[in-house]
Amino acid sequence: MVRPAILALSTALACLSDAGTASAQCRLCSTPTTVSEETRGGDKVALDVETSLNFDQLVVDGRGGGTATIRPDGSTENDGAVADVSHRAMVGTVVLHGQAGRAIRVDMPARILLHSLGGGEISFDEVVTDLPSLPRLDSTGTLTFRFGGRLRVTGDAEGQYRGDLLITAEYL
Fold first, then answer.
1. Averaged over 59-69, what is the pLDDT?
2. 2 band by pLDDT with thresholds 50, 70 and 90
3. Which of the 8 DSSP states describes residue 155?
4. For burial by CB atoms within 10 Å, which of 51, 104, 121, 165 has the most?
């Protein structure tokens, strides 16, 4: 089953929030069961955002274009008109929960646009994760991964920017 989560990416220049779901058995709707979801062959994947992707503040020198990059290991890089990336910049951390040992596919967009209240627009692209090439939930049914990417700034980019980053996880 595909389990998407929409994450709001913002920045003064970024943060993620979870649109996850929670479920419980309705004891009035059907006969209750004590069999675990895993035993019944449940096909749900839960996605929780543990920490938010956050570029915090960027120092932009001039009106030209530039980039700020944060990698899954937490390292940062700046280029062009972006003179510095805040030391408080943080990678995003996501935890998946599901059936123990199951192979899983995680899809993230290659690029999203961020918008400011003043009408400005910047892009977030080159999204990268530390997921293995064939991700699999561990023996407890969890998989934790970190992600980052590149923020492209052009022109007068002052302000706070927000956008949505859709993460989809499904069993293979």
1. 86
2. very low
3. S
4. 165
CA dist list (Å): 30 to 23, 24, 25, 33, 44: 15, 12, 9, 9, 19
Question: Is residue 30 domain-resident?
Answer: no
HSE-CB of 125 using CA atoms within 13 angstroms: 8
Whether pLDDT at 158 is above 90:
no
Alpha carbons within 13 angstroms on the beta-carbon side of residue 163 total 23
Token duo for residue 88 = 């408080």
Closest CA to 59 of 161, 165, 158, 162: 158
**Number of structural domains in the chain:** 1
Identify the bridge partners of residue 68 per DSSP, sorted by sequence position.
78, 151
Residue 106 within a domain: yes
Instruction: State the pLDDT confidence band at 28, using cuts at 50, 70 and 90.
Output: very low
Rg of the Cα trace of the chain?
19
Q: What is the mean pLDDT of the chain?
A: 79
Q: Which two tokens stand for residue 146?
A: 């970190």
Q: Is residue 63 part of a domain?
A: yes
* Token couple for 29: 């709707």
Token readout for 36 is: 């675990």
Pairing of strands 3-11, 161-171: antiparallel
Question: CA end-to-end span of the chain, whole Å?
Answer: 9
